[in-house]
UniProtKB/TrEMBL annotation:
Entry-linked InterPro entries: START-like_dom_sf
SUPFAM superfamilies, alphabetized: Bet v1-like
Source domain of life: Bacteria
Species: Rhodococcus wratislaviensis NBRC 100605
Protein name per Swiss-Prot or TrEMBL: Coenzyme Q-binding protein COQ10 START domain-containing protein
Length: 163
């Protein structure tokens, strides 16, 4: 299963990139995050492997995330017109995923964030979930983007949301 979601954020690209790259901000916009801890390497750097635990309703899902691409490596003073890439591979029970993020300037104070996701499922239960609920994965990715946008632009914290 593959899909692409995107959003525009009313902030300069360098500001958006700095907010995305700072692990201290993850709980503020990554709805359902219980834990995100590096097992090896430094958060956000290529090759870093992290243990991630997400809570969705009563279900907890644990996976391992590996950063496979971060360009440019130095996120300060990014050349105008260049594309910022954040790619990661996520492996959990019955699931493998690759997520490729691209951030580009959409104007002087505007950033376009495009996220391409690819999922592969193994095991009966996960294959069934992928077959019966493909829209749920896309919806969750779009929700994370909207939550980040609200955090970046307005300082909204998902932990304070009244669902």
């Amino acid at each position: 299963m593959k899909y692409t979601v995107s959003t525009e954020i009313a902030l300069p690209r360098e500001t958006v990139v700095q907010l995305l790259a700072d692990s201290a901000h993850l709980p503020k916009w990554l709805r359902g995050l219980v834990l995100h801890e590096p097992l090896s390497g430094v958060h956000g750097q290529v090759g870093t492997t992290s243990r991630v635990v997400m809570q969705m309703g009563k279900q907890k899902f644990e996976c391992t995330e590996t950063i496979t691409r971060r360009e440019p490596a130095d996120l300060r003073g990014i050349p105008k017109g260049s594309v910022v890439h954040f790619d990661r591979e996520i492996v959990g029970e019955g699931m493998w995923s690759a997520v490729r993020e691209r951030l580009t300037e959409a104007g002087p104070e505007m950033t376009l964030w495009v996220s391409e996701s690819e999922y592969r499922f193994s095991g009966f239960l996960m294959r069934l979930v992928g077959l019966l609920m493909p829209g749920a994965f896309r919806k969750q990715s779009q929700q994370h983007m909207q939550d980040f946008k609200a955090f970046a632009e307005q300082g909204k914290d998902v932990r304070e949301a009244k669902d």
